[in-house]
Specification:
By secondary structure, the protein is mainly α. It has helices spanning 29-48, 53-56, 68-87, 105-108, 114-135, 155-181; strands at 144-146, 152-154. The chain is built from six helices and two strands. It has a two-stranded antiparallel sheet with strand order 1-2.
């Protein structure tokens, strides 16, 4: 018989019945999209919980520069690009953690420093709050908008893309967190 390393609450993030991501029963397409988006945003936050800045910045799968802190910075940038530049039409508003000629500055700048970590989480939460305020206005999901590259798409497509983006990166976060301290689950 082998002994398995179990962390958290029997391998889960929260005790049974206390997962903060409890699904409701949304009514309508926008409410459903928002619930999925909120679920994945909270999942990323949970995957980062209880770690030091050094652990958050750990690049657990060399040679990749991906880290949990880099993912938070990346998602702050993604929130900005899709909500500010595309959905709100503020195409000239420069995203956070971006630099001309440095494609991966969001990941490359994710240093294990308390100030860097605090800035990343504050920026990400600020971008989420701004996006949620826009969503509170109940946009027309079929309305046409332009991407930052000038291509036409719909509000619906952008929002589904955001769910996809978070879901993909939460999968990365699962693996990164497991490499850091073995924690898996929920």
């Amino acid at each position: 018989m082998t002994s398995e390393h179990v962390v958290g609450h029997n391998g889960m993030w929260a005790p049974q019945g206390e997962d903060p991501r409890v699904a409701g029963k949304p009514v309508g397409e926008l409410a459903t999209i928002r619930e999925y988006l909120a679920h994945y945003r909270l999942t990323l936050e949970l995957k980062c919980g209880g770690l030091s800045p050094e652990q958050l910045a750990a690049r657990s799968v060399p040679p990749s520069t991906m880290s949990l802190l880099g993912l938070v910075r990346h998602m702050a940038r993604v929130e900005h690009i899709w909500f500010e530049q595309c959905l709100k039409g503020q195409r000239d508003a420069a995203p956070p953690y971006w630099s001309e000629g440095r494609k991966d500055v969001d990941f490359d700048g994710a240093a294990g420093d308390a100030a860097v970590a605090a800035d990343a989480f504050a920026t990400w939460k600020g971008r989420i709050a701004a996006a949620d305020r826009w969503l509170d206005e109940a946009p027309d999901l079929g309305a046409t908008v332009l991407t930052r590259h000038g291509e036409e798409t719909t509000v619906r497509d952008v929002l589904i893309h955001m769910v996809e983006e978070y879901a993909r990166h939460c999968g990365h976060a699962d693996l990164l967190r497991e490499c850091i301290d073995g924690r898996t689950g929920q």
